[in-house]
Specification:
Elements (H helix, E strand, L loop, with lengths): L2 H22 L8 H15 L8 H11 L1 H14 L2
């Protein structure tokens, strides 16, 4: 097991402990459990060059903005709508 795998395992163990502690403490939140899990998940997405589903709308917007035809559409829209 690589060092990074061991680090991630420790982080996920900490996340679960935070959730347990929050529940036992009567908290209405998870003590930061999901935040730690998300950090690990986003790290892994980055290493694999995968766009997280939470970012899909941003990725679609960037793709559209890089499209030369879309750029031309925006240019013409500005020209004829705004004078």
């Amino acid at each position: 097991m690589s060092n990074m795998s061991l680090i991630q395992k420790k982080i996920l163990e900490e996340a679960e402990q935070r959730k347990i502690d929050a529940g036992q403490g009567g908290c209405s939140h998870d003590g930061g459990c999901q935040d730690l899990k998300d950090q690990v998940r986003f790290y892994n997405y980055g290493r694999a060059a995968i766009i997280p589903h939470e970012w899909k709308s941003y990725a679609d917007l960037v793709k559209k903005e890089l499209d030369p035809e879309y750029k031309e559409y925006i240019r013409l829209k500005k020209k004829f709508e705004y004078g």
